[in-house]
Design the sequence.
């Protein structure tokens, strides 16, 4: 759903990672051990809210219908 008064909505599809277990100060060589799965993420932005009404990035990204996700593809045995 497009937000009320939106005039410049754009989008891109991204591959998002699902963190599978608590991680803090993880060395780069161990990082993938903490990935629990992947999901397609539709990243929506309303550019007029973001750029023409005070310049705050969050204004263009925070509509309640933005950032829909598909089902998570879990990696068996990779995270608990």
Sequence:
């Amino acid at each position: 759903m497009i937000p009320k008064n939106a005039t410049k909505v754009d989008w891109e599809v991204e591959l998002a990672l699902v963190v599978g277990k608590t991680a803090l100060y993880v060395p780069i060589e161990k990082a993938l051990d903490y990935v629990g799965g992947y999901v397609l993420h539709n990243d929506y932005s309303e550019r007029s809210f973001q750029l023409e009404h005070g310049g705050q990035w969050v204004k263009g990204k925070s509509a309640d219908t933005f950032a829909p996700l598909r089902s998570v593809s879990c990696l068996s045995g990779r995270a608990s």
About this structure: The longest strand covers residues 35-46. Residues 48 and 54 are 10 Å apart (CA to CA).
